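RECORD CONTENTS
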Amino acid sequence: MSGWQLWTLPFFEAHHQKLAERVASWRAPSHDEPRAEELADACRALALSLAEKDILEILVPRRDAQGGRKIDVRALCIAREAVAYESGLADAVLAMQGIGTAALWMHGSEEQQALVLDRARSGEAITGFALTEPGSGSDVANITTRAEASGGDYVINGEKAFISNGGFADHYVVVARTGEAPGARGLSAFLVDKDAPGLSYGPPMELMAAHPLSSLTFSDCRVPASRLIGEAGRGFKIAMETFDIFRTSVGAATLGMARRAMDETLARVKERHLFGSPMADIAGVQMKLADMSIDLELAALSVYRAAWAKDTIGGRCTREASMAKYVGTEAASRVIDGAVQIFGGLGVTRGSIVEQLYREVRASRIYEGASEVQKLVIGRSLLSERP
């Protein structure tokens, strides 16, 4: 991965710059896209590779000197940007190790943390986050999967859809309705093991880019009450706290993809000739490169401003996170589309790097809140600040 001057700006401290050098040296074990039936093994291999470079340490934090745990969001964004530059699938593995453990280190019991966190940090255990349902994606308050208290257990019934690492993760954080209040206030989060009785999985789903995904079905799935994460009725809050940390890093991941597309494009226009001269000499190409660069750097500033705000100001930073995700993913999509256009026929040829990036970046404008939802969050935040 090429260096980037952005990492020397005042958003960052000395340890972030050292981290950037370290994570940028990571290389994907393979750049071949695995088939659906190969994804589980490929993802486990990537998790172990990331752990060997201590990159999973960033997303699954250890206790600090005061006994607490906290993610450095700037470090998280640097890591996702660097890893996504190398491999979109590796970035998905990295992100899910964080999203699938955040509820535990923020609100989990000592027993829950001991069961999962160290093994997830080492890449030994794969985690998942089961929130989305066939009838509720961005509208989390409409979750219908139910968890009913029964003796010393909870019995879960319902279906989850589009679950990353579904079918092969070792543990899932599952959000289900426990009914303490209507809507979002009646949800709770549970830690569910892969072999819990009554939990079954749909077949692997094939997406436009390699990504491990399947449905989860709960049929009288019984889990001990000790697997309730935090307090009953706080599941929505736990989910939103998780997204407030990781939503900004989605923008960072797409920055990595866009930077890869930019680097590939610069190399391409310097080596390819049209009409007797290098493509780089064509004014229209130079203007397209300028558009791509402007998009890329403005998006980066939005992403790292949000990460800086979360680390230094603290609190929810929901609006900043939504801006970072929206601006980052939309800009990266334009940059990669520009790369495809400049590459021409090779840009739409299966197996070329920009064609792969084009497929990999598309889902980022949908997952963890679609672009339209991010605009709603930003608009409502602005209105709430006015008397």
